[in-house]
Specification:
heterotrimer, A alpha/beta, B mainly alpha, C mainly alpha, B: mainly alpha, Four Helix Bundle (Hemerythrin (Met), subunit A), C: mainly alpha
Chain lengths: 237, 230, 202
């Protein structure tokens, strides 16, 4: 029986008068490759920021690794990795310096070796001493992924990880995801194009109008397209 | 927050009544000042204006603290409505104080008068607070950052006051402070003026909050019928 | 980038030198204000990118997700700012003595005052910089927000104490002012520590 890593109950978030998340309930087990799907602007990034403890929810309960999450929590962040469309990289620093900075923030042991390994894995080792400002979009994306997994987090959030990646880089990303998942890491994807992760994911949730309206596990995935059409129909009414 | 119309009218009524009373007291009832003469009569409204502006900022400070704790936007509304009205009273206080200074001392401004000085600092903080709100990026960040700045500003008011006093110690100058003694009738007139302005302040605050409530309702209606929530 | 700050303070002092060559003035009276205005305005430009950069480059969330307390971010940035600005001030001080033939006062007292005054204004400046980073027109908002809370508290006390030093006083004379400035320093540090969580959190 795999243990539950993330438990969210009745999570709600509003920005002023705009209610984005209504009542979110989620349960993610160790080793899951969960995909969150939904239309533009529905609140996927907001939800992921709440689940990864970047942003506090207005109400509701969030339990990560068995610990209840509140404002003061800090140590849990060691187990969380986050990659978003903002690369979290400093343009004036080199690739190496960026990873070194985050290695220090996470107090990583043997950081030189780990940085070298990960730079080699994402194929940017030859650019270690170049400023990130000179990198292309795809290179920045790859380095951002490296930054997200540098501290070997148990739960990894990836927001649109495939955006801007060429075929080679997409394959590299899939290889990394597969390797980490085999090591027992858990993934949470936000994806626009379901085809990108259809084969990798084992659980899909559709976010619509502030709630997770449908969830598909394992074989139920095949019902996804129909149900999603339904959701779109409901949203446009 | 809805305030009963009757209550609001009552407060306005009291404010008007007390204002009329204090005008009578200030202009007719109280005797002329022994040194300054009739010009001194503005003193009652000058002091009342200044005190109300400090009260207003005190409300902003407390409302800011409550907002940061509860994240309920109603506290933000109270905070900035208080600033909007407080700045009017503050401006009045400075203008009346300056006029009075001009009539009595011949100069319109004295840096050494710590009351005038601190009120100017308060005025600048009010202006900065409003500038901050104009440049905020979203409703929640506006509320949050205003609350933080309100706290910083409020803490710096007594600091400015103290800094000015210390500075005076090191740079003494010959200033005729024209306080004199406050006769009982004058003290009474002053208290009346303060009460009058307090009621007026509360009235304006309630009206301002009601306007905000109406704005919110309009936005809600816009959202319901599909308009863009700006 | 830091070189530009040094050149800026040189330009500010040169402007003062030029302006005051046209007008008669007493150097000992004006030395302190000239110096502190230079420090303040040159320092403003160092304060501005401290938090704004993080917001612009999107790295702010990167700090939020790391297992560090936000107050450590605050103190880290504060210390780096202090280092840069104090170096800037030492440089400006030298230029000042070159441009203005003022009688050299009690140097230890002067340096001590400069340092404690700087700690105060850089601390509050950092808090205001964090606030402004989240506003439109951030560069303009920093002085708009900073002047009302800073000028009449710590700047006034520091300028007045410094001018006394320039008139020949030694440190004992300005002891009261120094206690005050230290009290401000402490209060601003406490304010920063308490409020930074609320400012930086999304």
């Amino acid at each position: 029986m795999r243990d539950e890593i993330l438990f969210a109950k009745n999570i709600a978030k509003s920005f002023g008068a705009l209610n984005v998340l209504n009542s979110i309930n989620l349960s993610i087990k160790r080793g899951d490759r969960y995909t969150l799907f939904g239309s533009n602007g529905v609140g996927k990034t907001t939800l992921v920021k709440i689940l990864s403890t970047i942003m506090p929810a207005d109400s509701g309960e969030l339990i990560l690794f068995g610990k209840k999450i509140n404002r003061r929590v800090k140590d849990i962040k060691n187990f969380i990795g986050f990659m978003s469309h903002e690369s979290f990289l400093y343009n004036e620093l080199t690739a190496w310096e960026n990873l070194n900075f985050y290695a220090d923030l996470y107090s990583i042991n043997e950081k030189e070796k780990k940085i070298e390994d990960i730079l080699k894995e994402i194929g940017l080792f030859h650019r270690s001493y170049d400023r990130v400002g000179t990198f292309s979009r795809g290179m920045r994306q790859r380095l951002s992924l490296a930054r997200a997994i540098l501290h070997s987090p148990e739960l990894i959030f990836l927001d649109e990880p495939y955006a801007g990646l060429d075929i080679k880089a997409q394959k590299m990303l899939n290889d990394i995801i597969r390797r980490l998942n085999n090591e027992g890491k858990t993934f949470f994807f936000i994806i626009h194009n379901i085809a990108e992760v259809f084969n990798i994911t084992n659980k899909i949730g559709i976010l619509s109008q502030g709630k997770i309206v449908y969830e598909f596990e394992g074989d139920e995935k095949k019902n996804f397209t129909d149900k999603y059409q339904e959701v779109i129909r409901r949203e446009t009414n | 927050m809805k305030f009963k119309d009757n209550l609001v009218q009552l407060i306005l009524g009291l404010g008007v009544i007390f204002t009329l009373i204090s005008i009578y007291l200030a202009v007719i009832f109280t005797p002329s000042h022994e040194v300054m003469g009739d010009v001194q009569r503005i003193f009652y409204f000058h002091v009342a204006s200044a005190w109300i502006s400090y009260l207003a900022f005190g409300i902003t400070f407390v409302a800011g603290l409550f907002y940061l704790k509860t994240k309920n936007l109603k506290w933000d509304k109270i905070a900035f409505s208080s600033v909007e009205i407080g700045i009017v009273f503050c401006t009045l206080g400075i203008i009346t104080g300056s006029t009075w200074a001009g009539a009595v001392w011949g100069v319109f401004w004295i840096w050494e008068d710590f009351k005038l000085f601190t009120t100017l600092v308060l005025w600048l903080i009010f202006v900065a607070y409003l500038a901050l709100r104009t440049n905020a990026k979203s409703k929640t960040s506006k509320a949050k950052l205003s609350a933080v700045f309100g706290i910083i500003g409020f803490v710096c008011i007594p600091f400015s006051f103290a800094a000015n006093r210390i500075w005076q110690q090191y740079h003494p100058s010959v200033i005729v402070t024209s306080k004199g003694s406050l006769q009982p009738s004058m003290a009474f007139a002053l208290v009346m003026a303060v009460i009058a302005f307090t009621f007026l302040f509360i009235y304006f605050l309630i009206v301002r909050l009601n306007i905000e409530e109406m704005k919110d309702n309009i936005e809600q209606i816009k959202q319901d019928i599909g308009g863009k929530n700006v | 980038m830091i070189n530009s700050y040094f050149i800026l303070s040189l330009m500010i002092l040169a402007s003062f030198r030029f302006v005051f060559s046209i007008v008669d003035f007493s150097l000992t009276d004006l030395a302190s204000p000239i110096l502190w205005i230079t420090f303040f305005f040159a320092g403003l430009f160092s304060l501005s990118p401290t938090y704004k950069r993080e917001v612009e480059q999107g790295t702010k969330d990167g700090l939020m997700i790391a297992p560090i307390s936000l107050s450590s971010v605050f103190f880290g940035k504060l210390m780096s700012n202090l280092l840069v600005i104090i170096c800037l001030e030492m440089f400006s001080l030298v230029i000042f003595f070159v441009f203005f033939p003022v009688q050299i006062p009690d140097i230890t007292a002067l340096l001590f005052l400069i340092i404690i005054g700087t700690i105060g204004y850089v601390t509050l400046g950092n808090v205001i910089s964090a606030i402004s980073a989240n506003l439109k027109q951030s560069e303009i908002m920093i002085p708009v927000l900073l002047v009302p809370v800073l000028l009449f508290t710590i700047i006034m006390s520091t300028v007045s104490a410094t001018s006394l030093i320039f008139s020949g006083a030694n440190i004992i004379v300005v002891l009261d002012e120094i206690k005050f400035i230290l009290a401000f320093d402490f209060a601003f540090l406490a304010l920063g520590y308490l409020l930074i969580d609320y400012i930086l959190e999304p």
